[in-house]
Design a protein that fits this description.
The chain is an alpha/beta fold. Helices cover about 40% and strands about 20% of the residues. It contains 20 helices and 25 strands. The strands form 5 sheets. The chain has a 9-stranded mixed β-sheet with strand order 3-2-4-5-13-12-11-8-9, with helices on both faces. A 5-stranded mixed β-sheet has the order 1-20-21-19-18, with helices on both faces. Helix 6 packs parallel to helix 10 and helix 17 packs parallel to helix 18. The longest helix is centred in the N-terminal third of the chain and has 39 residues.
């Protein structure tokens, strides 16, 4: 009990009751004086009346007037009772309203008792991120590639490179790759292509940059050939070239990273938006297609909404075609490259060209294009938070609220409303960072936050988002010891959740990414929700949709200075409420990601979750086309992704 606040309330009640007693005493005194005059029904019989009251006033005291006064007395008594009742009800109403509105100050704070702290687990538990075993492996594809005839088709000289006319960087790069992996190949000129392919009908043709003969390529596809296009054609510097819905045009754009597009023929098993630091082998052009397998994004200019193609595989009636713009050799790229990712991407290209069938679970429930969540980071609290609550209530947006337990103890009624209109995510007890190396401190702080928010909101608290997204290995142990399902703090440019496994039990923790939103910079620094800010945020949504990744926006309440910000938030949420988007709470994303991991590894899972999320199985068939099959209600479907 907060005794200081209670004393103030008690003093207020004493004063109010004293005034009430004074009013009632006055009314009763006034009514009693009136009653003395009214109850004397024979005033004219007295000697004093006859001698001193003038005859003109005698009429006032006749029996009829006395009856009228009696009725007036009854009205006064009724007025007295009404007044007393009104004052009492008013006093009760004022006190009750004050108690309700300020109950946060009068009720003791929720927290952990000493015995509860003593029962907490403080174990240091080994954990690790679950490796993605569904990425294709180059060492399993190479034996099949060695059984094929590889033809390097090129034209000499190579004006694109600007190098010596007898050198071809594409030829050098692919010769190096094939030789290093002990794959036999032959070099063929365009003038001899018919004889080369005649002797090697079941070959993989790697077309190097140069003067492409598109008619010959069309004929090869009609013969059911497997073609790998590398780089651009020569004449792209003079005019644009369009072939198989792939457009080459002159451009000075430059990319240092390649971003994977989810759920495409060449990218099954890859995380959506996975960035691989591979630069194009040739410059001065751009490629554009409708369905890219990997794209380059203009990170220096977020306003640019056109995403250039860097990997492409169209649907064909015969043959298979892949276009790529990067070398398969790790040594041809700048430092910082993840060699495993590049090798997996190269393996996926040849896996497709070799006609291998493979499958994987679609990235999001119902096979939707991408996913998104919105969060409000509560630290100060202001009146505009109530406007956001009204917004969520009207539109049923699945908002997430990051809240300190100290803040919740002082704003219990507000927290209850947030819990009824979204998901409460623990942010810790206060804004001090979760980077201390004391597991006792981190476990107890997290347990206190979980209990406080759970009791106040009357909802189960499943997740954690540490202050300033700062955490360490001790934090992961604190999450495991407190039975959390997810934490939203993982710094990521990919926008993809990851699974954290502990050796203690089978429960998984999902690390939810908090991607940096460039569009929030003018909002937070300029404190103005302009049309440009909204446009930038929409560009980032388009990027996530193109990649099939997870989009997130976390807005701090300190930047929500007026209703215009709430309107921008409404525009963002409304834009996300499309049929092809998994717009969810963070716990929904976490639950789905855990189910997806179970399905991919053929582990036990809850059939109710199958009904809830209705996962989709994607498969590349023998014709090289991508097929969709529902995993629900057919619970017996298995995942046969090739490594």
């Amino acid at each position: 009990m907060n005794w200081g606040s209670f004393a103030v309330l008690f003093f207020f009640l004493v004063v109010l009751l004293s005034l009430l007693v004074a009013v009632i005493a006055y009314v009763r005194h006034w009514a009693k004086r009136r009653a003395i005059a009214i109850n004397d029904f024979s005033p004219t019989d007295g000697l004093f009346f006859k001698r001193y009251v003038p005859p003109s006033l005698h009429k006032k005291y006749d029996p009829e007037s006395i009856v009228v006064s009696s009725a007036r007395y009854s009205r006064i008594k009724y007025l007295e009772k009404t007044l007393v009742t009104t004052v009492v009800l008013l006093a009760i109403g004022i006190v009750s309203t004050s108690l309700y509105l300020h109950s946060d100050k009068y009720i003791a704070k929720t927290g952990l008792a000493e015995d509860e702290i003593g029962r907490l687990n403080y174990q240091i538990i080994p954990f690790s991120e679950t490796p993605d075993a569904h990425l294709p492996r180059l060492d399993t594809v190479l034996p099949l590639l060695r059984r094929k005839d590889i033809v390097l088709l090129y034209d000499k000289p190579d004006p694109i490179s600007g190098s010596h006319p007898h050198s071809n960087p594409g030829l050098t790069q692919w010769s190096k790759f094939l030789t290093s992996h002990q794959v036999k190949y032959m070099v063929c000129r365009w003038s001899r292509v018919n004889s080369c392919i005649t002797h090697h009908a079941d070959s993989v043709v790697i077309v190097l940059p140069g003067n492409w003969d598109l008619k010959i390529l069309d004929d090869l596809l009609l013969k059911d050939s497997n073609i790998l296009l590398y780089g651009p054609p020569n004449d792209v510097s003079e005019k644009h070239v369009v072939w198989q819905k792939l457009r080459f045009e002159k451009s000075e754009h430059y990319y240092e990273h390649l971003s994977i597009v989810a759920d495409q023929k060449l990218t099954l098993g890859f995380d959506a938006g996975l960035q691989i630091k591979v630069r194009p082998s040739f410059f001065g052009y751009r490629a554009v297609s409708e369905k890219a397998q990997a794209i380059g994004i203009h990170t220096h200019n977020i306003k640019e909404r056109s995403f250039d193609t860097r990997l492409y595989a169209p649907d064909l009636s015969s043959g298979r075609l892949v276009w790529m713009d990067f070398s398969p050799n790790p040594s041809d790229h700048p430092p910082g490259l993840n060699n495993n990712n590049l090798n997996s991407l190269t393996a996926s290209i040849f896996r497709y060209l070799l006609g291998i069938t493979y499958s994987d679970v679609a990235t999001w429930p119902l096979g939707k294009a991408f996913a998104a969540y919105l969060s409000i980071d509560i630290s100060q609290g202001n009146e505009n938070i109530r406007h956001i609550l009204d917004l969520v209530d009207r539109n049923e947006f699945p908002f997430n609220w990051y809240i300190f337990s100290d803040y919740a103890n002082g704003n219990k009624q507000l927290i209850k409303q947030m819990g009824s209109k979204g998901e409460i995510v623990c942010k810790g007890d206060n804004n001090s960072k979760f980077t201390h190396d004391y597991i006792v401190e981190q476990v107890s702080r997290l347990a206190r936050c979980k209990k406080t928010l759970g009791l106040i909101s009357r909802k189960e608290i499943k997740g954690f988002s540490p202050p300033e997204h700062a955490y360490n290995e001790i934090t992961i142990n604190a999450l495991i010891n407190n039975g959390m399902a997810f934490f939203a703090a993982k710094p990521s440019n990919d926008g993809v959740p990851t699974i954290i496994n502990s050796s203690r039990n089978s429960n998984l923790i999902v690390a939810i990414p908090n991607s940096a939103n460039t569009g929030l910079i003018p909002w937070q620094t300029d404190h103005f929700a302009s049309e440009e800010t909204l446009s930038l945020l929409m560009s980032e949504i388009d990027r996530s949709q193109q990649l099939g990744s997870l989009y997130s926006v976390t807005i701090k309440d300190e930047f929500i200075s007026d209703k215009s910000y709430v309107l921008v938030l409404n525009e963002i949420a409304s834009y996300l409420q499309k049929a092809d988007i998994f717009f969810s709470s963070i716990s929904g994303i976490s639950e789905w990601w855990t189910l997806r991991e179970s399905l991919r590894n053929n582990l036990d899972h809850d059939d109710k979750l199958l009904e809830k999320y209705k996962p989709v199985l994607l498969e590349v068939d023998e014709r090289g086309h991508l097929q969709r099959n529902d995993l629900y209600p057919d619970k017996s479907a298995s995942i046969t992704a090739s490594k």
